[in-house]
Amino acid sequence: MLWNVIDKRTRPYRWREVNAIVEAVEHDNSCPDADQAPESDPLLVVDYDALEAVSVQEAIAWANGQRCPVTLYLYDLGRGFASEQHFDEMGIRFRAADENPLD
User: Quick one: DSSP state of residue 72?
Assistant: First the structure.
């Protein structure tokens, strides 16, 4: 089920073909100012899944059909997957213990 959307596209008016990634929304709990999602059953958690070259409508329907609450990340076609780009960008969610989460 879709709980959040993060649009990482630089071409936001392109809807016919995008790349889509979903992760359990609870992964966002460590982000500054994030709403806090309850932890899902470990057997149901979607740690990561992706679709390439789908429409925005297909990406939303796919995300909404997931077995746990997810965040949908939208990327321009050809982005998000290369050289683990998504994982590099999402690394900001995990701050060092001595960092202030609101900085």
Answer: E
For 72, residues 6+ apart whose C-beta sits below 8 A from its C-beta are: 2, 4, 5, 6, 20, 21, 22, 59, 60, 63
Residue 89 token pair: 């960008």
State the CB neighbour count (10 A cutoff) for residue 103.
6
Nearest Cα to Cα of residue 77 among 49, 55, 48: 55
Is 0.85 topped by the overall pTM? no
Which residue do the tokens 């630089």 mark? 10
70-76 vs 18-24, strand pairing mode: antiparallel
Residue 8: half-sphere exposure toward Cβ, Cα within 13 Å: 21
Per-residue pLDDT reduced to its tens digit, 10-34: 999 999 999 999 999 999 998 889 9
User: Which amino acid type is present at position 39?
Assistant: E
Distances (CA, A) of 100 to 9, 32, 89: 28, 9, 19
